[in-house]
Each structure stands twice: as structure tokens, then as C-alpha cells.
Design a protein that fits this description.
It is globular and about 35 Å long. It is of the alpha+beta class. It has a domain of 102 residues: Nucleoside Triphosphate Pyrophosphohydrolase, CATH 3.90.79.10. The longest helix is centred in the middle third of the chain and has 13 residues. It is built from four helices and eight strands, in the order βββββαβββααα. The strands form two sheets. Strands 5-1-7-6 form a four-stranded mixed beta sheet, covered by helices on one side. Strands 2, 3, 4 and 8 form a four-stranded antiparallel beta sheet that branches. A hairpin with a 2-residue loop joins strand 2 and strand 3.
Length: 152
């Protein structure tokens, strides 16, 4: 019996938050979902841990070193990729420089800005919804902003 090539694919996503803004990338025109905004990350190679993959992906996409702090969440995308989401810190004094083969632009957006941005990658919206649940009650008015995720 053949299995789907989409089964057993694993990826990792890094969530970097600096001064209430989240590090996002705009995907280049040469990758899947061109022009969409998403958190940095990518596939986990067979010989890697999720943390090693995260460090490699940030180096490949943005030329920066990061430190995975803690596992935060996991989900399976509509196309069958099992994603691990990690809270991640950028090493000090490093400026992200987009690798044009993978990244067109680097952005820092607030949660409300991400929720309403028309270019946000749809598969990242589940994580945004989770962020709303986690921090919504700590930020005045954020609950209303988070409700728009269902309307985007």
C-alpha cells in the first residue's frame, strides 16, 4: 500500500518577539505561496532536531543566529506538514538580511497588524488565533482585534 508523500513531513517555525512586534518574512516569488507573510521557518531534515532546523532556517533565510527558547505549540497544515512552533530569540546585534531566493522582505508587525494584514499566510492564522487566546486578556482592546481573525 502506498502512502501519501505528504505524510511524515515535519517543519519548524520560529516566533521572535521584540518590543511587542513579531518578526515576519514576505516569501520570495520563487517559493511556494509567493508574496505571503509568515513566520520564518522550514523543513526539518532527517538528521536534525527541531531546534537545529530552526537555527539553520534562520541562517539560510535571514543570515542571523537565533536561540530556540521553548516549544510553544504544534499543528498540522492543510497539506499535511506537522509544524512545531518555537519561541525564539535573535542573537544580539544582528540585523536580518533577506536571502532573495527565499525572502523578499523582513517585517516587524504587532498582533493586530498581523491579524488584519491581507497577505498573511493562511496556515499561520491558527497560530495567531492561539496568540489571541494566550495574550488577549492581557492587552486592553486586543480581544476585539483578535475577533477579526474569523473575518479575514
Amino acid at each position: 500500500m502506498k502512502t501519501s508523500k505528504h505524510l511524515h513531513r515535519y517543519g519548524v517555525v520560529g516566533v521572535v518577539v521584540e518590543r511587542d512586534r513579531y518578526l515576519l518574512i514576505r516569501r520570495s516569488q520563487s517559493v511556494l505561496a509567493p508574496g505571503k507573510l509568515c513566520f520564518p521557518g522550514g523543513g526539518i531534515e532527517p538528521d536534525e532536531t527541531p531546534q537545529q532546523a530552526l537555527v539553520r532556517e534562520f541562517q539560510e533565510e535571514l543570515g542571523i543566529s537565533v536561540r530556540p527558547i521553548r516549544f510553544d505549540w504544534e499543528n498540522i497544515t492543510p497539506w499535511g506538514v506537522h509544524l512545531q512552533w518555537w519561541i525564539t530569540e535573535r542573537e544580539p546585534n544582528q540585523t536580518p538580511v533577506p536571502n532573495p531566493n527565499e525572502v523578499a522582505e523582513v517585517l516587524y508587525l504587532t498582533l493586530p497588524e498581523m491579524l488584519t494584514h491581507p497577505d498573511m499566510l493562511e496556515s499561520n492564522r491558527d497560530y495567531l488565533e492561539r496568540l489571541c487566546q494566550v495574550i488577549g486578556d492581557r492587552s486592553s482592546g486586543l480581544e476585539l482585534k483578535c475577533q477579526c481573525i474569523d473575518n479575514v
